[in-house]
Specification:
Elements (H helix, E strand, L loop, with lengths): L2 H22 L3 H4 L6 H25 L4 H11 L7 H7 L4 H30 L7 H25 L1 H35 L6 H19 L4 H12 L3 H10 L4 H33 L13
Amino acid sequence: MDIASLLLLTIKSSILLLVFGIGLNASWHDALYLFRRPGLLLRSLLSMYLVMPLAATALLVAFDMPVAVRVALVALAISPVPPILPKKELKAEGHASYAIGLLVAMAVLSIFMIPLAVSFFTAAFGRTGEVGALAVAKVVLSSILAPLAIGMAVRQWATSFARRIAGPVAMLGTVLLFGSALPMIVAAWPDMHALLGNGTVLIIATMVMIGLVIGHVLGGPDIAERTVLALSTSSRHPAMGLAIAVAVGVETRAGLAAILLYLIISTVVCVPYIMWRRKRTLATDPTYAPSRSTLKD
């Protein structure tokens, strides 16, 4: 096994551990939260699979950017929620049950939505290629639904054990993720550096802010749900985004560079929003408990 394969395996393992750790602190009620709220589900779909992709496409077409970068960023815009996002959303005082429910609902619906979106955007960009529902299902099942379900099952049947191991599992997953992601970023740096200085950073930052605004507006009156949708609309599943980009003809290195740059910039851009939402929520009600679930147990 070469270094690249080992890093990829480590990243996949870290994501599995992190999602399993989320499941250890979640419940089946959390997982089904969004399916019991059709109005919120519809707004979430509009935000993530319609308004954001169309806004991102308009932005990227309006400015002169390499086609590979445009396609990679649009591919991100039609990808589901990244599996480690709920932890960030909780730090922003987001609604925990909604965070888990959105993770599950968008993962399931992406099996049908992504192939449709890819067909539309390949036609819009004049490219060929397709992403089948089975390929999407394999990714979301292996990286989101299965480890989350296993974690919730352990919590249901061995609650004390789940609480004891949740922290160490999350810590191990975080260490593995950062330990394997850093060498990948270093290896991709020459391709990422080529994107600097030509306006790409500013356009990506604008795209992230557009996602925050769209999700914030469509999130509804509940401030904790609004926070979750804003962060989810602006942050997407990088592995799925890369898979979509490669499927429609983007060279892997170019697509990876654009997606890694997006991840770095989105992390930085979202920090002020997270701080603002946390401060605003706690200022409104210092005793506010956004979880309404067991995710923080």
